[in-house]
Structures are given as C-alpha cells and as structure tokens.
Amino acid sequence: MSSVSVGSPIPQDQDDTLATNSGIAEQAANKGKASRRRKTSHLKVVPETLELRERLRVRCAEVASKFDRSRPLTKDEMESVARALLENEGLGESYVGWIMVMLSSEFYREQVAATDPKRRLFLLPHCLKHAEGCPADYDEFGMNCKQCGACSIADFRTIAEDMGYKVLVAEGSPVVLKIIVSGYVDAIVGVACLNVLEKAIDKILLAGIPCMAVPLLSSDCRNTSVDEHWVSEMIQTRCVEPVQQTRSYVHLLRAANDLFQGDLFERLAPRLRESRPAQNGNLALADLDPVAATEGLALDFLARGGKYSRPFMTLATYDALTGGDATLANGADFLSGYSDSVLRAAMSIETFHKASLVHDDIEDDDGYRYGEPTLHRKFGLSTAINVGDYLIGLGYRLVSRESRTLGADCVADILDCLAGAHTRLAEGQGAELLWRDNRDKRLSPLDALKIYALKTSPAFEAALYTGARLAGPTDDMQEPIRQYARNIGVAFQILNDLGDWQGDSNNKLVAGGDVLGGRPTLLWALALANLNDEEQQELLGLSAADCPLSSAMRVSRVEQLYRRANAFEQARKLVDKHEQRALEAAAQIKSEPMQRLLVYLVDTVLERNDAPVPTVVPLQSLGALPVVSR
Ligand code: SF4
Predict the structure, then answer these.
(1) 15 C-alpha to ligand 1 centroid (Å)
(2) What is the pTM of this model?
(3) Residues 607 and 459 in one domain
C-alpha cells in the first residue's frame, strides 16, 4: 500500500530521544494511518495530577520547539509523535489525545502570541458554569455570562475582553470555522473537553489556523473544571517580534467565501437584468420585473450560504500547482492577483452545485435549505425548476466567456469536464429517482456504490480538474484526479448516509430521513444483502407505501434490522477502504503541494461526525459579534 509522504516536519537530526522519536514516528505513522478512524474514547484521558500535567507539558514544549513550522502537522504525524513521546515517558496510550492538544498548542504558541489580541477569538465552554445557579441566558452566539462570579468564566472573559479579544461561550467547530473564514479573526485560543478538541483539530488545525487550547479536566458536560492558571497565561501570551508563520489554507478558504459576497460577487457575476440583491434576505417577486426575476432569485440563492468547499478546492488546486504562495502568511496578497477568469471558473463549480441543490430539494421535496424554506416551497415548483436551469446556464457562462484570458483550449477542456460531470450527476440522480419510484426496493451494495460514484464524485472531479487545468496541461494528473474524486465522493456519500441517522436540527431533518424519503442507500443494500429471507421481506415491507406502522416505528425497526445486519459497521469499513484508495490515487500525483492538499481534503471532507449538527450562526449577523473592532 503506497501512502502519501509529504516531507515530514518531524525533526530528523535531533538529540537521541527525538531521533528515537522520529524512527518510531515513521512506524507509528503507518500504523496510525491503517486505523486512524477507529473509536478514540480510550485515548482521551486527562493526566490525573497537576504535577504530571506540568511535566508532560514541559516535555511537549521541548519536542514542539524542534518542529519545522513551515507547514501544519497532519493528524497522523501529531498522533505518532504523541505516542512516541508517551512511550519515552514510560506512559500508556490513554493520554494520546491530551498530548496531541498540548503539542499543537506549543506548535502554534508563538504565532498566537504574535497575533494582535483584537484579531483573536477566545472560546469558552458553557459546562464551566455553575450549573445549579448560573443566571446566564443564551442567544445565537451562545451563552451570555452575567459576570456573577460563581465560576471562572467571568474572570477569563474579563481578562480577554480587556485585551480586545472576541469572546464566545459556545462550542462546535462549524461555527468557529465560519467566524475564521469570514475574516474576523486570525487566531483562536480556547478551553474545551477532549471530545470537542478532537473535532476542532479536524477542522481548524489542519487548515493551519494558529490556535492554542487548554483541555478541561473532564468531559462531564456539567460543572467542569480546568487548570485556571494555564488558561490565564494562555490568554495573555504576547510577543511582538515577527515569527515564522505556518502555511495555511485560511486565505484560500476566505477567498472562496468572498467570491459570493458584496462587490466582488457583483463584479464576477454582473446582473444583466434589472434584478436587485435581496433586501435583508427577502426577495419579493412582486418587486421584480418578470424578465429579471429568474436572475434575481438565482443570484440570491447562489450567494445564500453553504461551506463553499468546492470553489475552495478549485482555488487551492490552482494555487498548489502554481507555486503554493496563497498558503503563505501573506497569501491574501497573492490571491488578490488572481484573474477574474480564474475566480469565475471557481465560482462556476459552486453554481452547478447550487443548481443541483435546487433540483434535489424539489425531487426530495425537502422543506428547508440553509435554515430557510426551500425555493420550491417559497416560490413554487415551476419557478424553482427554472431557477435551477438558469444556474446551470450561468455555470457554463462563467467559463465560456473567458477564452481570451484562459485560452480557447483551456476553456474547452474545462467546459468538457463540466459537461461530463453534469451528465454523470444526472445519471446518478436519475438512477436514484427510478429506484425510489419503483415498487421493487431490492438494491445490491454494488448498485448503491455505482449511484454514489455517479451522483457525488463528479462534483469533486470537476472542482479539482478545473483548478488543475487553469494551472496548465493535466495529462499526467487526469486519471489520478478522477480516481481520487471517485473514491472521496463515494466515501463522502456513505458518510452522509451514516450522518442521516443523526438528524439535522438546523434543516429540521429527523434521524432516518432517507428511509422515510425512500432514498436508496448503501445501508439499505447492505442490510438486504446480510439479512435472512424473512427479515429481508420485513425490511422491504417497511418501505412499502401501505406500511401500517408510524414513521417513528418504521425508522426504529429499520435501524434494528440495520444493526442486526451489521450494516452500519460495514458501511464505516467501506468509508475507510475508499478513503485509502483516494490517498493511493493522491500518491500518484508528483506535485507535493497538490498531494498535501488532497490529504487535507481527505481529513476534512471525510470528517466522521458522531454528534448532532449544532445550530449554525447566520453569516450576516457576525458583524454584530460582541467586541468587534476591525
Ligand atoms: S460567572 Fe457567568 S457563567 Fe459563571 S455562573 Fe455566573 S453568570 Fe454563569
């Protein structure tokens, strides 16, 4: 099995202990890679005594001081060093999670210290509050401490706010990533339990965003405690000398987000009709002349939320293959030099994605998208279908008119890739709709995987290929990109299936929605393949339109049958398999910055999420974040 070896920042020529570490690190890295998606609860123990925590923190600072800070550590590298360090200390693996947090905090200490406190975000967990008597209330930003002094939150908040920090008493990395991408902060310091920090590592650390954290002493979610002097010292860490900045994707994440904001959005996708941007999110059809209405609705939906991960992939691929300067500390300067043609090509990928969401929501009759009623629920079916068609046309137009800058061959190649992806996506969606409307609900795991490879992978391929083709000829990269996209797309869709059993409070989706919506999933196919004849008949009966059971009963019985068929575990194993194949395809690409990007995407796109989705803060309200001073 070939794994991606992107030049390790782990020190090679250090004193004996570290030299030993690096050897062990390599072995551990390969071992870690093989099973990095296993359960981790046994690795999240906090060292029991302050004396032991102090000793290990000093050791982490020593090891981290020798790291090459030019680029972020991967999760595997961090874990392998943590294991080597604990072995050297004669301690077991239970502290691995805690050591990883300490190592990454030491790795970024100087960069956080060099960041103006006004550009830092301080995150506190509400479980530190005095649970019995806390008078605080909550709003969309989290908890509003009343400074009653009954717990340490008030003190920490005062220290931080006096220094100019933005302070949030909230959890959940998606909210934090939105705040970072929106450009309000450049570094994060926080207090949280190891469960929350494990997720934060996936999202924030891997993106190369400077952050430090002090783990809570337990994950009890109530009346928790922390080494308070460590937190005060962390908040007040300062240095004025310039320090080496680690490469980061934050500028590219922001650039992808900024494509759909304000003047830049209007410049890249100028309104050809008299349509006006929505006022306060509400576009009134009555105010629009009929000819301008479709453009108005389409552009409004295009700019309305989402992670913009696909345009990020296109811009990051283009950057990786043109020198990687956008990941440097002054990466934003390089990005401001990108031509509108390159930016429009990245925008077109999101435009196709938004078009497929409009049509998907109609085909699945979903009620909410981005926390708001879906287009067809708001403006009617035919209008929504038409807006989706407009977005498809716009997706092509954003590229087709750029041949003067990009060259006719480049434009033709990108349009051909987009058209190919578009038709395959429709084939996958079509296969899903035919199955859904068919009375016979038999489905083999292979059929389900074929539908996923058609439905989800083309969007990844189009995003990566467009970025690569903008950078130049892609002959030696085309097939590895296709294989990578195919496998990460399938793994992503299987994770969606597994995520469906968590529900999604933001879009008011209940757990098991795929069963109730009659969507063909790998879980269904695996269950049919593993259950005995009688159980298969029962499962098929639960999807029948005339099934007498209530929705809740049906979902609960299907879940029992899935467990009996070991469908969930098998699906997780298939995610690991497709993830490994994606990494093997990435290893065939010669460009190191491109390999690094593909590893980063595997770590972030294929995030296993076993917690319910937290409520998302609407972007436009971030301006009202407490103590904002730009
Ligand atoms: S200090 Fe703030 S968070 Fe702590 S108990 Fe009082 S109001 Fe609640």
Answers:
(1) 47
(2) 0.84
(3) yes
